[in-house]
Every structure is written in C-alpha cells, then in structure tokens.
Amino acid sequence: MKEKVNFNESQTFVNLSKSFASECMEGAKYQFIASQCENQNLDFLKTTFKSLAKHEMAHAKVFWDLIHQNYEGDIIENVDMSFGYPLECDDFVQSIECHSVSEGKLSDNIYPAFAKTAKEEGYPEIEHKFKLIATVENCHRMLLEQIHNKLKTKKLYKSEIKQKWKCSKCGFEHTAKEPPAPCPLCEYDKGYYEIKFDMGE
Ligand SMILES: [Fe+2]
Ligand SMILES: [Fe+2]
Fold first, then answer.
1. Does some domain include residue 81?
2. Tell me: the pLDDT tens digits for 178-196?
3. How many other β-carbons are positioned within 10 Å of the β-carbon of residue 149?
4. What is the span of the domain harbouring residue 193?
5. What global pTM score does this model have?
6. Which of 29, 42, 128, 194 lies 20 to 30 A from 48 at CA?
7. Residue 131 Cα to ligand 1 middle (Å)
8. Are 126 and 48 found together in one domain?
9. Whose atoms come closest to the Cα of 141: which ligand?
10. What is the pLDDT of residue 82?
C-alpha cells in the first residue's frame, strides 16, 4: 500500500484550493445571472439561479473545510494554484449554455480526476467528497441545458401540449399551453410561473 502523502505538499491540497476558488467564482456568476433574470421579470428563473449560487457556495465551504481539517500549521500564507478558468460571455442566453458546458467538464473530467489523485495520495474522504460534488454538478449541467434550450427556442413559457402552470407567488394553477399573463389571481408577471424541468428522476 502506498504511503499517505503529506497534505501540505500534496497535489490534493492544490486541487482543493483550485476547487474552492472555482466554486466561489461560479457562485458569483450565478448571482449575476440571477440579477439578469430579475431585470427581465423572470422571477422563477431568478430563484433557480439563486439556488444554484447557494449550491456552489456550499461546495466552496466543503472544500474550505477539507483544506483546514487537513492542513498542518495555522497559517496558509499563499497558494500557487495557476489554472485555466472559463470566463463565460455576458450574453444572457449564450452564457447559460457556456455554464452547462463548464458544469459538464467539472462533473465528467475535473472532479473525477481530483478524486483519483486524492485516492492515490491517501485521502479517501476527500476522494468521496469530490465524487459527490461531481454528481451535483451533473444535475446543474442538465438543468442549465434545459434552461438554455427553452430560452433559445423561446419556449420558456410555451408548451406544445396543455400542461399545468403554477404561480409561485400565489399558488394559482392554470392548465393551458401557456401560463396566463399576468396571473389572474395575484396579478404578478408571467415570470412568476414555475417552469418544469426533467431531471431524470
Ligand atoms: Fe459546485
Ligand atoms: Fe455547479
């Protein structure tokens, strides 16, 4: 059996640092998209992006805690962690597609590779966390793909067949190909109506 690598000198420490930084930036970018949704009266979508931002900050906290649980010594002064990081465009619809691609890279390539390194360096608990977070990033990818498709085809609030639409503000339900605009009960904008996503459950 291979010897456990000293954490302070391990690649896993660097990978956790990169992942922490990347998750913080993802969290910020989803907040920016949430603001763009707000500007377009897409309240339900705004809430969806706020929840994505919350997930990313929770991932950042997991990585932060793992660093501090394993690092020997009190002060980490500086970490050299140069890495390529995607800066998606600022176009509302296109940026969502770019984010779905970035999420796919995290779930399929980057975090599985970091998990493998953690295992090789003797950190199975860190390997496990990388694998778990990869599953969440895969859900993010699926969600973003669907949001992007609906926006691109202008079918965010249009369905081929009649479906039930529910107002997230007042709970009013309406069965049709489109939700009523504004809501007949609370008179809030169409953007408050819930959008259904297929997450493969
Ligand atoms: Fe994340
Ligand atoms: Fe994510």
1. yes
2. 999 999 999 999 999 999 9
3. 14
4. 157-201
5. 0.93
6. 128
7. 11
8. yes
9. 2
10. 81
